[in-house]
Design brief:
heterodimer, A: 390 residues, Pyruvate-ferredoxin Oxidoreductase, domain 3, two-stranded antiparallel ribbon, 20% strand, globular, B: 412 residues, six-stranded mixed sheet, 13 helices, 21% strand
Chain lengths: 390, 412
């Protein structure tokens, strides 16, 4: 038996589809420069992809064909040498179309394996978002704006080749920087991209993550029923109707919170979340009406509280809200939990106001790709700055 | 419907049934009336169209109160009744040949959704050439999908089987669709004397359709037919497997009750045995070819040949163990297929291959099984054809090698 290498790329459906495919393919092609066979594939169960829903690509490489077959005999690797998370908000956990429950981003990492995350955040912030793991592992941050585009467009900001450069540093047995650069020239014929790969290679630094570091929560699980435990006729009972909401200060009940799917929460789709100013809300109902995920709970006084178990972070509420800064989308990395904003506001209105202003001010600008014309151009100075510093 | 004088039921000694001179299609239409179906969809194609015309006539005459919907094609025709059945309606539809095939997508989803649709297939050759005559390949196309499939050989059996089909399909243990195959022309277009059971007895035999927790209704909000990935599909298929497995015993129950209530017995529900008690060899087949086969057998018996006949009634579920046990008594078996399965094992017809499969895993004796393809496109299967088949089967019984598949009644 030779050596088997497995690398997974966790990405945002559609927005990062081409990015993930480029990384996965290039890993195999670069390793092949050194005579290693390999395969690259997307997890079939994640398809059809939907905007922002977490999905996975895998690159499996071996030192010989027989060993590769060992890797191919399992559809999805059970452990990986490197996990690449091309969006830092995925570190909060991954709930994809392909499975049930919340998977920690570092779940498949071998002891001592490396998690590469594209982020502008510090290692401390990123480690805090990841669930704890029994064994130590390494974190490598690739400084950068998470690279989002669309199904038919690709934002060629060198995230793909920079990650390849990092891999050649972290796992030199897989391939060298030279092989990465040769692959880049084959695929893109672009000297600037080879330079980006080299720069990322040089500046790669690892942080060791210990078992006592990270999010201590147990991710929610769902056990699949046996065939005779399932209902027949491919019929699924509806979600029960909702209940009134209890005011945390007066204990008065009112409003309405719809019951939600207990087995598919979908909030890991979120990269930004709405922050609501309840003091300026005019109760126009537009956010509640337009939310495609029915995420707003109606409070006893008729306000609208975005429920973070259900919000996918699409930003429609912000777009339809007629009041300035009543609903503001803020980068998900700014938050540590899914607690109710309305309850926080009811308990401490002054404190909430300060918290709200802080979040809006440091909103950590981000987007799902083309939200408006000229948006990418606005990001170019920051991208160049990152490129210069590495 | 031409009505004949009411007759006295001899077994029960009371006036319970009337007799009518009707076609096999009309017999099924009468069963629809007796079953008080709620929704019927129609789209014309010969020979199925006869049944839709008869049902239409019953509605027009005020004898049957149902929604009668003429769809714009067979796909919609089967989809409409599928949805109506999900909403708790007792439904009826049907088709023939390529019309049945045009509905194929709807046909595949119906068993998986556990819809107890009852359909009549007026068996017809698949185009091309555009032919109206009988072949069994249309109904057989759904044999692996969870449809209960039955072939009948008389108008009386068509009527009785339609009532049994509703009872079994709508049994909560089953909830699988059922297609009743009637040979085009031979059964769909020829009139015979048929005993019409009384409504009271039918009501006693056939309970109301109750979809229970699967009822699609605002008071029972459910999502039907969502997308499911590899985490679910095997379990869903396994449920259908279990339902089809149960169909075997539920059918037996239904036939026993049918005999008790109507006083008419079909013996073994799954296959009919004719003159097999002392037979050396047997012929097999499905549908109306039973008539020339039985006549030929009587003729051959006069000449001292101990030939019997086993007519398969229920093709799905297939009573493999029972059939293998029955066939183990004979020296050789000749199966006459009114269908083809090009490129299949030994290029035999569908029924032949099923019979061989049933025998292969059976612990008992395994007589040689010869396959015969005959009567395609509605061609008559003649008494001399049957004699020719029997001759070859006797040769096989004597240990002489015979071709495993032979075409009979072919110009060559």
């Amino acid at each position: 038996m030779g050596r088997l290498f497995a690398i997974e790329i966790i990405y945002r459906g559609i927005y990062q589809k081409t990015l993930a495919k480029n990384i996965s393919r290039s890993i195999v092609l670069a390793a092949h420069k050194e005579g290693k066979p390999g395969i690259s594939f997307g997890r079939y169960g994640d398809s059809p992809e939907r905007n922002g829903i977490p999905a996975k690509n895998f690159a499996i490489v071996a030192t010989d064909d027989i060993t590769l077959e060992e890797g191919m005999a399992k559809y999805e690797p059970k452990e990986v040498d490197i996990t690449i998370s091309v969006d830092d908000t995925l570190c909060k956990g991954v709930e994809s179309w392909a499975w049930y429950g919340l998977q920690p981003v570092n779940r498949l990492l071998k002891p001592g394996g490396t998690l590469i995350v594209t982020s502008r955040e510090t290692p401390e912030t990123v480690i805090g978002m990841c669930h704890r793991k029994d064994q130590p592992y390494n974190l490598a941050i690739l400084k950068g704006i998470p690279s989002f585009s669309g199904l038919w467009v690709y934002k060629d900001d060198h995230t793909d080749v920079r990650i390849l450069g990092m891999i050649s540093k972290i796992l030199p047995e897989l391939f060298s920087l030279k092989s990465v650069q040769a692959t880049i020239m084959d695929e893109w014929k672009d000297q600037v991209k080879t330079a980006s790969a080299a720069k990322a290679h040089e500046t790669t630094s690892l942080v060791s993550v210990q078992p006592n570091q990270g999010n201590p929560e147990t991710p929610y699980k769902f056990d699949l029923p046996k065939w005779h435990e399932m209902g027949e006729g491919i019929a699924i009972p509806s979600i029960p109707q909702g209940k009134a909401v209890e005011d945390p200060t007066t204990r008065a009940e009112g409003g309405y919170r719809p019951d939600r799917n207990p087995t598919f929460k979908k909030y890991t789709t979120r990269t930004m979340r709405p922050v609501v100013n309840f003091d300026t809300c005019i109760k126009c109902t537009l956010c509640w009406l337009q939310c495609p995920d029915s995420c707003f709970d109606v409070t006893p006084e008729g306000l609208y509280d975005a429920n973070m178990q259900a919000c996918c972070g699409c930003g429609v509420c912000e777009a339809v809200c007629p009041v300035k800064e009543c609903v503001t989308m803020v980068n998900e990395t700014e938050f540590k939990d899914n607690a109710s904003q309305w309850e926080a506001w009811r308990n401490d209105k002054k404190g909430y106001e300060a918290w709200l202003q802080d979040k809006i001010k440091s909103r950590g600008e981000r987007s799902h790709g083309f939200r408006y014309v000229g948006q990418y151009e606005e990001q170019v100075p920051e991208m160049l700055e990152i490129a210069r510093k590495g | 419907m031409a009505q004949m004088a009411a007759v006295v039921d001899e077994q029960h000694g009371k006036q319970t049934e009337e007799t009518a001179l009707i076609t096999g299609s009309e017999a099924i239409a009468v069963a629809c009336k007796l079953a008080d179906v709620d929704v019927v969809t129609a789209y014309p194609i010969r020979p199925y169209d006869t049944v839709m015309q008869y049902v239409c006539k019953l509605v027009a005459n005020g004898e049957l109160d149902c929604e009668y919907i003429v769809a714009e094609g067979e796909h919609s025709q089967f989809e409409i009744v599928k949805h109506a059945s999900a909403c708790g309606a007792r439904v009826f539809c049907g088709s023939s040949g390529v019309g049945w095939m045009y509905a194929m997508e709807a046909l595949t989803v119906t068993p998986a959704l556990r819809i107890p649709m009852v359909a009549m297939v007026g068996n017809r050759a698949l185009d091309d050439p555009g032919a109206f005559g009988v072949e069994h390949n249309d109904a057989l196309a759904v044999r692996d999908l969870g449809w209960q499939l039955v072939w009948v050989d008389s108008a009386q059996e068509a009527l009785d089987t339609a009532l049994i089909a509703y009872r079994v399909a709508e049994d909560r243990r089953i909830f699988l669709p059922c297609a009743i195959s009637c040979d085009g022309a031979f059964l769909t277009h020829s009139q015979a004397l048929v005993k019409i059971p009384s409504q009271e007895k039918v009501n006693q035999f056939l309970p109301r359709y109750d979809r229970k927790e699967l009822l699609l209704h605002p008071d029972n909000p459910i999502t039907v037919a969502p997308q499911g990935n590899e985490d679910w599909v095997m379990e869903i298929r396994r449920q259908n497997y279990a339902a089809m497995e149960r169909s075997y015993s539920v059918l037996k129950e239904a036939y026993a009750d049918f005999e008790r209530i109507f006083g008419r017995s079909y013996g073994n529900p799954f296959f009919e045995e004719y003159m097999t008690a002392d037979a050396d060899v047997v012929l097999m087949g499905m549908g109306t070819l039973s008539t020339p086969v039985k006549v030929a057998i009587r003729k051959m018996r006069d000449a001292g040949k101990k030939v019997g006949f086993v007519r398969i009634r229920w093709f799905r579920p297939f009573a493999a163990e029972e059939l293998a046990k029955c066939l183990s008594r004979f020296k050789a078996v000749g199966v006459i297929d009114r269908d083809y399965s090009f490129g299949s094992p030994y290029n035999s017809g569908v029924v032949t291959n099923e019979v061989r499969t049933a025998l292969y895993s059976s612990p008992g004796a395994k007589p040689p099984v010869l396959g015969f393809i005959a009567g395609l496109g509605g061609r008559e299967v003649t008494v001399p054809d049957v004699e020719k088949v029997t001759e070859s089967v006797y040769q096989a019984a004597a240990g002489k090698q015979q071709p495993l598949t032979q075409w009979i009644g072919l110009r060559e």
